[in-house]
Amino acid sequence: MPTPKPKVWMSVSNATRVLAHFKSLPEMDQSKKMMNQEAFLQQCLVKLRKQLRNQKSEDLELEIALLMRKGLTDGADLGEAEFEAIMSLTWMVEAKVKLVREQMEQVRNQRIEVIDLRKAKEERLSSVVGREKAPVEAATEMLSWFPEDNTGTRFTRVDSELPGLCS
Questions:
Q1: How far is residue 96 CA from its own chain's centroid?
Q2: Residue 74 pLDDT level (bands cut at 50, 70, 90)
Q3: By residue range, what is the domain housing residue 81?
Q4: pLDDT tens for residues 2-38?
Q5: Burial level of 116, CB count in 10 A (0-12/13-18/19+)?
Q6: Rounded to two decimals, what is the model's pTM?
Q7: Does residue 2 sit within a domain?
Q8: Is residue 101 in some structural domain?
């Protein structure tokens, strides 16, 4: 039986060219990102363990959410659930309650800020209104803008002289 021909990815000329390029690199670049089989497998194992841990965590969260939904909608008995699931459910409910309380506090603080802004605006408006003069004072001040004529009167009726404007 003849030996099967090995499968190669590139031609011999391409392989020698790639190998020559690799050998022409400085030694530091040649050894960069290089590892032995054991180190490579350890790195893969670490990644797989992390994926497994993340998947278990996600599965537990989904189980707890399902348990909570069953308890809320169907009134399912939690006595059938595992102790770990019940403890996790307790933890999740407490975390959600804490989150709701924090959000309520934020809303309260925002309302207080809005109320404070409104009060400041009202105070500014009242201070502006408070600085306005009474109508009599304003009229007296306006009188001082016009010089007196030689008869001692300050105003003359203009409407009789310009009948089209004041009729």
A1: 19
A2: confident
A3: 36-129
A4: 777 777 667 888 888 988 998 898 888 887 777 888 9
A5: exposed
A6: 0.39
A7: no
A8: yes
